[in-house]
Write a structure and sequence with these properties.
The protein is built from 7 helices and no strands. It is mainly α and 222 residues long. The protein is globular.
Length: 222
């Protein structure tokens, strides 16, 4: 990897990390609009949203890669550990789900309500729903040029969603300690939860498949 490319990737990853920290602190301390426009989500309640959790995963992955890239720049080394690349992939799949959900469901819903399609891409939500997801995906596809991924890595990309769905279904559907703010039950119809989850898992799996296939095609160029 050329030095200029390492520097560019370092800047991008450091930017992702810094933005994630700022957005998380703003959400925890000030409150955020994610999922409940106009209401205050303070303290740990901010982390109920998968948007926040997926962005934080991406931020951690970017911090790890920033440190590794800086060390490589100083020591003139090239290697990025496989585990770090794999974690980068998992984070990219997570924020890809955030981006796709916003672009195909949340934004059109707001547009139908008369609030405009780009409401969920404005202000702080621009970073949570667009810039961090897009940069995380692109830096994985075009920034990691050593490891070729296969189907087993694709399955690992589902882990954050799987863990989140367990917590969400338990709290929002079974115990009712959370409101069903993502609408898994479509207004209290618990019978649709399993089909909804299957669809979400399938979409996430396909997104992960597309991301790692694009990555493999890029590194196979020689």
């Amino acid at each position: 990897m050329k030095t200029a490319r390492k520097i560019l990737l370092t800047i991008i990853h450091l930017s992702i990390f810094i933005v994630t920290v700022i957005m998380t602190l703003r959400g925890v301390i000030i409150g955020a609009a994610e999922g409940q426009l106009g209401e205050n989500m303070i303290n740990l309640g901010f982390f109920k949203a998968f948007t926040v959790d997926s962005n934080d995963i991406a931020g951690i992955a970017s911090l790890i890669l920033t440190i590794i890239l800086i060390i490589n720049l100083i020591t003139k080394k090239e290697e990025i550990p496989y585990w770090a690349v794999l974690f980068h992939y998992v984070s990219a799949v997570s924020v890809a789900l955030t981006f796709i959900t916003t672009a195909t469901f949340l934004a059109p819903t707001q547009a139908a309500l008369g609030n405009g399609y780009f409401l969920y891409f404005s202000k702080d939500m621009f970073f949570l729903h667009f810039s961090t997801p897009v940069l995380s995906i692109l830096t994985f596809i075009f920034g990691e040029d050593k490891f070729e991924f296969k189907i087993k890595e694709n399955l690992l990309g589902l882990i954050p969603l799987f863990l989140y769905s367990i917590v969400y279904v338990t709290c929002a559907v079974i115990l009712h300690t959370w409101t069903d703010f993502y609408g898994f039950t479509f207004g209290g119809h618990n019978a649709v939860v399993v089909p909804v989850l299957i669809i979400i898992y399938a979409v996430t799996f396909l997104m992960g498949f597309g991301i790692y296939k694009a990555h493999n095609k890029y590194i196979s160029r020689g």
